[in-house]
Write a structure and sequence with these properties.
The complex is a heterodimer. By secondary structure, chain A is α+β, with helices and mostly antiparallel strands. Chain A has three helices and three strands; from the N terminus they run αααβββ. Chain B is mainly alpha-helical. In chain B, helix 22 runs antiparallel to helix 23 and helix 49 packs across helix 52. Chain B: Belongs to the importin beta family.
């Protein structure tokens, strides 16, 4: 039921795995092995699956520290810009540094969804 | 598909029938494929309509099925060929066929396909068949395929429904359910275009009375279970669809709501229970707004009924069959949908408390979590949501907890007690007998519980720790190891949240008591592995505690050192040791000698894994780092290096004593295979020695969270380690690295490990034993040649050297040598496509030099080599390998964007750009014109933007490239190209260029690629 009733964000299409999928679909269309309509359905399935998998299956975690430079809440989307960030991965004493990190977080229920 | 893939087309209907029967009969896959191709060709041909009509009356069911399928294919691909009259005639044909099916009691296979065909018809001609359900009822009642225009003459829907037989009602339910399922799958654009929702809505008034006939308040008593079940499934499909209609167009299908109450009563009907409970679980989970307040009241009283009580008890007693489990999921779905009300009415409404207690009870069903108890994880998820809600509302009432908080906390405490029991490992043998999925899921469930605890401690504060401390003492006293393990696991789980609390150490004093430490170090007590591991985890989680409470440290260290000698515990123990040494480095300084001795003891008595040795060495090195004077660090470091060198010696001895490979021996180039495994042992020792060096390098690094003393003199200029007494340490380290490389440099593992050692030094911000002069590092890298395994790793490590701050203002000549070394490797490689990894790392190295020391790149000799580098980077840009292309795009963006340099360097750059600019423009346009993958466009936009901003000739170069015969697409006109060029020039390198490039790429590729925004 959720599959037909609920709609999902397309934001993971810009992730590396989403872009790799889109490139592959482009290749399949170029080779005339699939039609663009099927590619659209596959991407819609991807939107759903990646959202569900990230919510349900990912158990790894990390902590990070940094300086909160900017934050905003617009159209139900929080955006945080953090500078001089240090990430600490679980089960590892090593840290990863980044000059700047942007965190975009959306409500797990899309605006307009009835809950 | 080419004609060659299918056989010759049949020439008669009989031949077609034979082919269909052949298709559905068992046969060789290639024959089936060929037959399918031939039949599909027929279906798609203009004669497909006629073929379907001819086959639909065939006496064979499979052929009639194929006829319905052919109608679907034609409707989906060729509906536009039908005029208005043709379409009406087709509808009457299909309905006539459906009537005949009813008359001859056609099998479900054909009827279902025919129902799908009618839905396919609706999808194409929805505007001329709006009241499709009523029209079908009318035709089926009168046993005549009447035209749609005659619908006005039909009796009222209620009358039609009364006259409809159960068999015909089932057919209507199939069509109605398929109709909304298919429309639910339609994407948003198509939905808007065809306005499907608006076309479907009128039908709800027709289907609801028909469903009501079977599941309503006064259902037809004579109706069989089959038709009632189909009615319920149809209702389920329509409710599901109504959610989509609400999201897309805010359409509420109100008539459906009248069926909720009678449908709920169907839960009590065993035949309808499974469909109904699934329906309401879905509605509660995804679309609870569909239900009215009265519906929730009915649900509440239903959950209080003896029926629910009996199902609940059956579930708790360990009946996890599908229908029993569904009841638990139904309870949880109701809890999720009403959690706000349930929580906020706690303390005032006894029913809420009762319901939440019931949900808490679900955490205590019989059987081990996951492996047997299937309701535990969903119930745990509910309680996690409940706790999150509590955290959100902690201070909702101006600094005070809301009034319902104490009651909610008491309930969560009950839930925690049950989860604690469920988190206890079964006996090891039993646990190992589970399949791997169950074992992993059990551990995941423990982590989910740990997450809940972390959240809950935010509402209770640190006193929550006392609960687990009591449990630890109780289970330790009774030596109940599973309980002790779970209690320590829970306590460790809240360590992150408890860190900042000033009372934390007082609570932990009650944990790390002498009696508990004695229990774990007592050789007479046999404690299961999982409990020992959990205790080590507890030490790791609270290692910082021992910095403040040094009295417990000796016993803890004794325990940890002991544990390193156990194969099952060694890895965790060594991690605990690293953590303790790092956190308590200053306190442990007086014990440094004892640590070195202890290391010597355990390595001489036990064979330790390489990673364990690395971790222990890291720990000891971090204590050495705490010594104030650099001179003091030399002696203990020498001792550590003695251990490493002992391994190296043993490794080399093994290699030299092994029988040398004969000429033509297949393992001649692989030392690990020499002499029946002696080589493998040598390799393992070599890897261990390298890992130990890395461990020492990590430990000796200055902690980055230490205080910065502004009074002390700047130590970055100290030459103690490079030219003073410390230099002999560096020489020994370098010697170990070189000896290992010389002996085992043709093994990828060794190359990687040694590169790791160098990286530790590059990362260090202050002088130290691993911060060696850059020329030493460069000399090591240049030992590698084209045959070296994992050469890409070596070059990447050289990249880290370039980026590190070890060069000072004037980089030495060795940088030029390093550049020549990389250039020669690329020349041997020849073309970028021959090894994408080497190409990528090679160009990245050149990019780093370009960014930091452009003069070294531009003055690179001989000039033919420099020319090769540029042409190689251009070739990588037009190639097909994604990573080389991306780094080449970065290189060219950086090159075009170089800041102004002093003369004569600037002159060289200008001349190079004038020469290379047209070729670069051509490579970029070739990609943007459709050759590049979509994901590469942003990277490729960068050099385009830089060209436009920095080069006056950019427009001419790009224009020539766009008009060049090598341009890869014929889908854009010259005008389009000029328009595109004008746009990117006008944008002058602004961010909008990326979008313009994306649109142009799309135009070049064609409309087939516009499926994604």
């Amino acid at each position: 039921m959720a599959a037909t009733g609920q709609s999902f964000y397309e934001l993971y299409r810009r992730s590396s795995i989403g872009m790799a999928l889109t490139d592959t679909l482009d290749d399949l269309i170029s080779e005339r092995r699939i039609e663009p309509q099927l590619a659209m359905k596959i991407l819609a399935n991807f939107d759903r699956s990646i959202t569900e998998v990230l919510a349900e299956k990912v158990k790894a975690r990390l902590t990070f520290k940094g300086h909160l430079d900017t934050y905003r809440f617009c159209d139900e989307v929080w955006t945080f810009l953090i500078k001089d960030v240090t990430f600490k991965m679980e089960n590892s004493s090593q840290t990863v540094q980044a000059d700047k990190v942007k965190i975009v977080s959306c409500n797990s229920k899309r605006p307009g969804d009835p809950q | 598909m080419s004609n060659n893939d299918s056989g010759p087309l049949p020439t008669s209907l009989e031949e077609v029938e034979a082919l269909i029967l052949q298709l559905y009969a068992p046969g060789r896959p290639d024959h089936v494929f060929k037959t399918q191709e031939t039949l599909q060709k027929l279906q798609r041909s203009p004669e497909g309509w006629q073929l379907a009509s001819s086959l639909m009356n065939n006496k064979d069911q499979q052929i009639r099925f194929f006829a319905a399928l052919t109608f679907i294919v034609k409707l989906n691909t060729d509906a536009k060929s039908l005029g208005e009259q043709d379409a009406q005639a087709l509808l009457q044909t299909l309905i006539g066929w459906l009537i005949r099916c009813m008359e001859i009691s056609e099998g479900a296979l054909v009827v279902r396909k025919l129902c799908s065909t009618l839905v396919a018809y609706f999808m194409q001609f929805s505007s001329s068949w709006e009241r499709c359900i009523r029209h079908l009822m009318y035709c089926l009642c009168t046993n005549e395929a009447r035209p749609y225009s005659s619908l006005d003459e039909a009796p009222e829907t209620d009358v039609l429904i009364q006259n409809l037989s159960d068999t015909k009602a089932v057919a209507i339910f199939w069509i109605a359910a398929t109709l909304v399922e298919e429309i639910g799958k339609t994407d948003s654009n198509s939905m808007k275009q065809h306005r499907f929702h608006r076309q479907v809505v009128p039908n709800v008034d027709d289907i609801v009375p028909l469903i009501s006939k079977y599941i309503g308040n006064n259902p037809t008593e004579s109706a069989g279970g089959k038709v009632k079940e189909e009615a319920m499934k149809c209702f389920q499909a329509w409710v599901s669809y109504s959610h989509r209609a609400y999201i897309d167009d805010e359409i509420v299908l109100e008539p459906l709501r009248s069926l909720v109450k009678p449908a709920l009563m169907c839960l009590l009907d065993d035949d309808l229970y499974e469909t109904t409970v699934e329906l309401f679980s879905d509605v509660l989970a995804n679309y609870s707004k569909f239900l009215h307040k009265e519906d929730f009241d009915i649900l509440r009283s239903l959950f209080n009924s003896p029926w629910a009580q009996q199902r609940y008890e059956t579930l708790l007693k360990g009946d996890f069959d599908f229908d029993s489990l569904q009841f638990g999921m139904f309870m949880i779905a109701f809890g999720d949908a009403t959690v706000q009300d349930l929580t906020k009415n706690l303390g005032t409404d006894p029913q809420c408390e009762q319901y939440l207690s019931g949900l808490c009870g679900l955490l205590g069903a019989e059987g081990h979590a996951v492996h047997e108890d299937k309701i535990y994880v969903p119930a745990l998820e509910f309680w996690s949501t409940f706790v999150e809600l509590m955290v959100d509302d902690i201070y909702s009432e101006k600094g005070e907890h809301p009034s319902w908080f104490p009651a909610a906390q008491a309930l969560v405490m009950q839930a925690i007690e049950r989860c604690w029991r469920k988190s206890q490992f079964p006996p090891t043998e039993e646990f190992n007998s589970w399949d791997s999925v169950d074992r992993t899921s059990f551990k995941d469930a423990r982590r989910d519980f740990s997450d809940l605890l972390q959240q809950f401690v935010l509402t209770t504060g640190i006193p929550l720790l006392q609960v687990f401390i009591d449990l630890i003492h109780k289970s330790a006293a009774s030596q109940n190891w599973a309980e002790l393990e779970a209690s320590m696991y829970c306590l460790g789980g809240v360590s992150d949240t408890a860190t900042e609390d000033p009372l934390r150490d007082e609570y932990l004093d009650k944990v790390f008591t002498p009696s508990l430490l004695d229990l774990f170090t007592d050789p007479q007590t046999e404690i299961p592995r999982q409990t020992m591991q959990s205790f080590l985890d507890l030490i790791i989680s609270y290692s910082e505690y021992f910095k403040h409470r040094t009295h417990a440290l000796p016993k803890v260290l004794t325990f940890v050192f002991q544990a390193t000698t156990s194969q099952n515990l060694a890895k965790k123990a060594s991690k605990a040791l690293t953590r303790l040494c790092s956190d308590c480095r200053k306190i442990l300084l007086p014990e440094l000698g004892a640590f070195l001795q202890q290391y010597s003891n355990i390595t001489s008595n036990y064979s330790l894994d390489g990673s364990v040795k690395e971790a222990v060495m890291e720990g000891i090195a971090s204590i050495i780092q705490a010594l104030e004077d650099e001179e003091q660090r030399v002696a203990p470091l020498e001792q550590l290096l003695n251990f490493v060198e002992a391994d190296v010696e043993q490794c080399l001895t093994l290699l030299s004593s092994a029988v040398p490979p004969q000429e033509g021996d297949q393992y001649a180039s692989d030392p690990s295979q020499i002499d029946g495994g002696r080589g493998a042992m040598a390799l393992e020792l070599g890897v261990t020695a390298s890992k130990c060096l890395t461990g020492i390098a990590k430990g000796i690094q200055v902690p980055d969270d230490g205080p910065v003393d502004l009074e002390t003199k700047d130590s970055t200029s100290s030459t103690f380690w490079t030219a003073g007494d410390g230099s002999r340490i560096q020489q020994r380290i370098y010697s170990v690295i070189c000896r290992l490389y010389d002996a085992l440099g043709n093994r990828g593992e060794i190359v990687e490990e040694l590169c790791d050692v160098w990286r530790q030094g590059f990362r260090e911000m202050e002088p130290g034993p691993f911060v060696m002069p850059p020329n030493l590092a460069a000399q090591f890298f240049m030992k590698s040649n084209f045959q070296t395994p994992r050469l890409g790793r070596v070059i990447t490590t050289a990249c880290s050297l370039i980026s590190s701050r070890k060069w000072g203002d004037e980089p030495p000549d060795v940088l030029a040598a390093l550049l020549s070394w990389v250039a020669s490797l690329l020349q041997i490689l020849g073309r970028p496509g021959n090894d994408p990894d080497l190409t990528q790392t090679g160009i990245e190295f050149i990019l780093r030099i370009l960014l930091k020391y452009p003069q070294f790149l531009l003055n690179h000799q001989p000039s033919s080599s420099l020319e090769f580098i540029f042409m190689f980077a251009l070739e990588a840009l037009v190639g097909s390998d994604p990573l080389p292309k991306q780094i080449a795009a970065e290189f060219w963006a950086a090159f075009v964007n170089l800041p102004n340099q002093p003369e004569p360097l600037q002159g060289s750059i200008n001349s190079a750009i004038q020469h290379l600019g047209p070729m670069l423009a051509q490579a970029l346009v070739y990609n943007i014109g459709g050759h590049a993958a979509r994901s590469e466009l942003d990277k490729l936009s960068e050099p385009v933007k830089k060209l436009v901003v920095r080069q006056v000739n950019a427009k001419a170069w790009l224009e020539a490239a766009l008009l060049d015969p090598s341009f890869p697409s014929d889908k854009v006109s010259e005008k389009d190209k000029q328009f595109f060029l004008q746009k990117i020039i006008n944008l002058r390198g602004a961010r909008g260029t990326n979008q313009v490039i994306r649109e142009f790429w799309l135009a070049c590729r064609g409309t087939n690629f516009a499926y994604v925004s």
